[in-house]
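Action item from last meeting closed. Structure (234 res):
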């Protein structure tokens, strides 16, 4: 499988080279080589169990590849300290895993890990950005699913990541909340010129968000290209 690249001319932000992970005899991710351009949104689609989440978890080293590697701006990610890597490559999962406590405490967590205090004005800007102005003092146990996912996104954005990994970020939400999160993703990715990889089982959503899509089956990359061509939607 040749290495596939995104927008010609744009710098490559993230590249996987023969990226693979086995767990015992099981192959979760098999020989995936792909390039993602700076500012691009790439959708990852494929049947349940295809290895989409496993692939995503390798990109910020939540799991370790058993062979192959990842380059971040041409630098091998094994030479980047894991904490630094996870700050630069943020992740939002299907369900927001928020810590018990206030919205503000959750959002301040990332910067505090790097020894930084998130100024109240920046906190409020982040809350406004995700459509939750004034929510800082609320307890996370009182949030709706959509609100919690917005907090999860704000918490990740507080780290000012270069790459945003999203694993089925709207699949636990009702259609209206999902559309709101989609809009938010499109806006923040273009404002911050972030690179984004979104796993979704929803082909229409892939078409709305991503210009390019890759299809995974049984751990392998089986197709990649413009979303409308690869998924026959749009
Ligand atoms: N830590 C693990 N050990 C063994 N098998 C796993 C592990 N994590 C996931 N799997 C299996 O690997 C396959 C790929 O899982 P996953 O990446 O979650 O797929 P997807 O996100 O596409 O639904 C599935 O069959 C799953 O059961
Ligand atoms: Mg998954």
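Sequence:
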């Amino acid at each position: 499988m040749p290495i596939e690249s995104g927008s010609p001319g744009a710098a490559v932000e993230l590249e996987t080279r023969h990226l693979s992970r086995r767990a015992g005899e099981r192959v979760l991710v098999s020989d995936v080589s792909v390039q993602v351009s700076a500012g691009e949104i790439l959708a990852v689609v494929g049947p349940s169990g295809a290895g989409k989440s496993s692939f995503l978890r390798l990109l910020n080293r939540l799991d370790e590849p058993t062979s192959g590697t990842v380059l971040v701006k041409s630098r091998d990610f094994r030479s980047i300290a894991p904490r630094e890597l996870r700050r630069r490559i943020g992740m939002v999962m299907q369900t927001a895993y928020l810590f018990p406590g206030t919205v503000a405490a959750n959002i301040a967590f990332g910067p505090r890990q790097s020894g930084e205090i998130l100024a109240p004005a920046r906190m409020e800007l982040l809350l406004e950005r995700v459509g939750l102005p004034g929510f800082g003092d609320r307890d996370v146990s009182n949030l709706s699913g959509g609100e919690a996912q917005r907090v999860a996104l704000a918490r990740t954005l507080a780290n000012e990541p270069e790459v945003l990994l999203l694993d089925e970020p709207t699949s636990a939400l009702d259609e209206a909340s999902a559309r709101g999160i989609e809009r938010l993703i499109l806006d923040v990715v273009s404002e911050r010129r972030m690179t984004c990889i979104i796993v979704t089982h929803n082909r229409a959503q892939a078409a709305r968000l991503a210009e390019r899509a890759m299809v995974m089956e049984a751990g392998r990359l089986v197709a990649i290209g413009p979303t409308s061509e690869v998924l026959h939607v749009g």
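Note appended to the action item: The beta strands are 12-23, 26-37, 41-45, 67-72, 75-76, 89-92, 163-167, 195-199, 212-217, 220-226.
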